[in-house]
Structure formats: structure tokens, C-alpha cells
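Field log, afternoon session.

UNIT: design team B
ACTIVITY: writing a sequence onto a fixed backbone
BACKBONE:
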């Protein structure tokens, strides 16, 4: 079998390729518009890895590059531009797959492809990274221990030294702009991004980070499988002075539309060293914290999950585990799904544990 990694020359893509080679006997096809970088990376990976050039903004090139592939993982961002186009191209090509889409605006368009996926007998899972992805699975794990859920709180902290390239910066600016989804009183609402600020203590070495509301898919997808009256996603950046820079960019209108966001992201990438000031000299770490509160046996409890690791590992390993579940028949129901709607959660966590991802669980009883 052969798995295509779209955007395989990027940081997450490279981690995915390496992991899939280790965890399966599949052939891997890197598909990327940066052909030279892809070939340089693939040079020492052996005969199981091949390279094809394609540009997501030209779907026909993608279709040609995908011929003969059995499954695919899409890492091409920004996802608010490319998620739906790439997913449709995969399904039209007769290929099942997953993506690591962390933007909320494509969710409706992705699920609109459900009928196409069912008709073709294909599986597509969207949002299988760290947030969403790992976060969704953690919510499902906590939900099993509760009779009723009152509230889900999802927090992430990203170290700017832990990611490179304009796509990640595009996402950061996009998710910090305009109104973003939350769940309140059993209703989905749109509220202003960067509001609801609070300071969250993540495990070392991340530490204390100010976070605020941001636009992620979890408040849209999770309530379709669980009754969750209150749900939000808040994120922050390390070093924390970068949070002020993002707020200023939004306030000054540098993120007013997609074109402005892309121009601003490119400028930030050229000043990458400046934005990393204060990030420390040790290997950077990012973190996610998920708290699920509710009732069990008449008592209110909160289960909190903390995970700290490199962002590329936190993103790539869930996607790798998911695409292998599809190929191995553990998550192969036809249609378009979020992770919580189809993944074998036990197998998912076993896969992450085998790859060295450590999840800390805390149970807090309340009076």
C-alpha cells in the first residue's frame, strides 16, 4: 500500500513521513510544490519514499500526483484556503484520508462532502492534529467517566520556536480575528476572538501562559456526538510578549482579510528571530490542557489532561495513527468525520503512547 503525505516537505509532514515509515510497511509518496526540498529530505529515506510535485491551488496537478495512492494525509495550509479543495480532490480521486485542519471555517464545507464520500465508499477524517485531534480524543476519554458533562475547556500554548513557515502564522492570525465559535447553554455562539482572557498553568517547561478565545473546530464538531452545554477553546503563545504583537496586528487591521493575513504572516516569518526572543535556548515545547467537568454517581468531578511535547510530534502522530486506522479497517466507515466520530480511541492513545507521547490525567472531586 502507498500513503501520500501532502505537504510532506514541511515540519509536520517530515515527521509524518518518518513515523509512517517506522510504524508501517507502506510506501510513502511526498507530494509538495517544494520539490527540491522534498527530494533532499527523501534522499536518505530509502526506496519506499518517492516524491511528486503538485500545487494545491491547482487541483489538477494534485490529482495527477495522487494516482495509484491508497490513502493520504493533508498537511497543506492554510486550511481556510485549501482544506475543502484538497479533501474534494482526494475523494474525486477515489482516495480515503485525513487532514490536520485546525481552522473552523472549512468545517461546513468538509462535512458537505459526506454524501460524496459515502457514495464512493471512502473515509475522510478532518482535524486529526493536536488541537483539534488529540483534544477531541481526550474529551471522549473524559466523557466515558462521567454520566453528564457540564463543561469542556480546551487550552493550548504554542512556543513560537516550535514551528516554522508562513502557514502556521497564517493560522494563528486567522484564528485570532473576527468572531469565533464557542458553546454556551447548549447553543453555538460566535464571540469576539481574543476575549475571555485568563492565565493557565501548563506543566513545565511551558509554565504559566495567558490564553484567550480563538477559532478552532472543536466547538462545532464535538457537540454532534456528545451533549456539551459549555465548550470553548483558548490559546496563547510563548514567549508571552508575542500575544501582545498578535493583538496589535488585529487591532491595526493587518488581519482584516485573507490577503492581509498572508502578507502579515510573510512579514512575521522574515522577522522570525525577533519573535523568538525570550523563547529560551532549550528545545522548545508546546502544550495542551483539556478539562472535562460533569457528574458521576451524584458527585461533580473534573478530569484534566495535560500533554507537553514538540508541536510537530503532537500534530503528526495523531494523523499518522488515524490514517493507519483507516488502512487497517479500524476507522473505515464511509463518510466524512471528525476524530470523535470514528476513531478507535483506545487504539489511538495506544499509538501515541508507543510513540512517546505522555498524557497526565488529574481527577478533581468537587463538593
Amino acid at each position: 500500500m502507498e500513503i501520500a503525505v501532502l505537504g510532506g516537505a514541511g515540519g509536520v509532514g517530515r515527521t509524518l513521513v518518518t513515523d509512517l515509515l517506522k510504524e508501517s510497511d507502506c510506501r510513502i509518496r511526498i507530494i509538495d510544490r517544494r520539490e527540491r526540498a522534498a527530494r533532499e529530505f527523501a534522499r536518505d529515506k530509502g526506496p519506499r519514499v518517492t516524491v511528486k510535485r503538485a500545487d494545491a491551488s491547482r487541483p489538477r496537478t494534485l490529482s495527477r500526483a495522487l494516482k495509484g495512492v491508497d490513502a493520504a494525509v493533508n498537511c497543506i495550509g492554510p486550511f481556510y484556503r485549501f482544506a475543502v479543495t484538497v479533501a474534494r480532490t482526494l475523494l474525486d480521486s477515489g482516495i480515503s484520508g485525513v487532514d490536520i485542519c485546525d481552522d473552523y471555517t472549512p468545517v461546513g464545507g468538509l462535512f458537505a462532502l459526506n454524501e460524496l464520500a459515502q457514495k464512493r465508499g471512502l473515509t475522510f477524517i478532518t482535524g486529526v492534529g493536536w488541537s483539534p485531534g488529540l483534544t477531541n480524543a481526550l474529551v471522549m476519554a473524559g466523557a466515558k467517566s462521567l454520566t453528564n458533562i457540564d463543561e469542556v475547556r480546551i487550552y493550548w500554548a504554542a512556543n513560537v520556536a516550535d514551528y516554522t513557515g508562513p502557514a502556521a502564522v497564517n493560522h494563528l492570525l486567522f484564528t485570532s480575528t473576527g468572531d469565533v465559535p464557542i458553546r454556551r447553554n447548549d447553543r453555538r455562539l460566535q464571540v469576539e476572538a481574543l476575549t475571555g482572557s485568563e492565565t493557565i498553568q501548563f506543566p513545565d517547561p511551558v509554565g504559566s501562559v495567558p490564553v484567550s478565545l480563538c477559532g478552532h473546530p472543536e466547538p462545532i464538531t464535538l457537540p454532534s456526538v456528545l451533549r456539551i452545554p459549555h465548550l470553548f477553546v483558548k490559546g496563547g503563545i510563548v514567549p508571552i510578549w508575542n500575544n501582545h504583537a498578535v493583538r496589535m496586528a488585529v487591532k491595526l487591521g493587518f488581519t482584516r482579510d485573507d490577503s492581509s493575513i498572508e502578507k502579515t504572516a510573510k512579514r512575521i516569518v522574515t522577522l522570525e528571530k525577533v519573535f523568538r526572543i525570550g523563547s529560551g535556548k532549550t528545545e522548545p515545547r508546546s502544550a495542551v490542557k483539556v478539562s472535562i467537568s460533569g457528574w458521576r454517581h451524584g458527585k461533580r468531578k473534573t478530569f484534566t489532561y495535560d500533554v507537553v511535547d514538540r508541536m510537530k510530534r503532537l500534530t503528526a502522530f495523531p494523523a499518522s495513527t488515524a490514517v493507519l486506522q483507516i488502512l487497517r479497517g479500524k476507522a473505515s466507515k464511509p463518510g466524512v468525520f471528525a476524530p470523535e466520530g470514528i476513531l478507535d480511541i483506545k487504539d489511538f492513545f495506544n499509538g501515541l503512547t508507543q510513540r512517546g507521547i505522555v498524557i497526565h490525567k488529574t481527577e478533581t472531586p468537587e463538593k
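LOG NOTE: Residues 311-327 form the longest helix (17 residues).
NEXT ACTIVITY: expression trials, pending approval
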